[in-house]
Specification:
The chain is mainly α. Helix content is 78%, strand content 0%. Helix 1 (2-30) packs antiparallel against helix 2.
């Protein structure tokens, strides 16, 4: 059951991060203060979906289901990127929505790459 959840939630997480990233960049370009609540909501929603996806992967890994070393690598890179964004969140205040938009698009790319490498191992 968790295996199906992890597979379906991956698509939800990818689309959420991608759409949120594009909308955040559009908010930055428009420089309108009336969209700030929407931007903050999209950031929180995207991070939540990514963390739920990662938690599902960790549950599967704890059940001795081997995803392949490359898939595991990209999962760790996603967690490292989220940690990096959390640590440097105060430095991103100048162009807040631009940085978060680009970061979410980067995370979307990492998630796509993780799906593409499912089952592959280092030789």
């Amino acid at each position: 059951m968790i295996n199906n959840f992890h597979g379906v939630w991956a698509i939800i997480s990818i689309w959420t991060a991608g759409i949120s990233g594009v909308v955040l960049i559009a908010i930055y370009i428009s420089r309108s203060a009336k969209y700030e609540k929407i931007g903050t909501y999209l950031i929180n929603l995207s991070i939540s979906t990514i963390l739920i996806q990662t938690a599902g992967g960790l549950i599967l890994y704890s059940q001795k289901i081997d995803p392949g070393s490359f898939h595991l690598f990209y999962g760790v890179v996603v967690l490292f990127t989220l940690t990096f964004l959390y640590v440097y969140r105060s430095e991103m205040n100048k162009n807040y929505y631009l940085y978060w938009g680009l970061a979410l698009l980067f995370l979307m790319g990492l998630e796509i790459r993780a799906i593409m490498t499912l089952g592959r191992i280092l030789d």
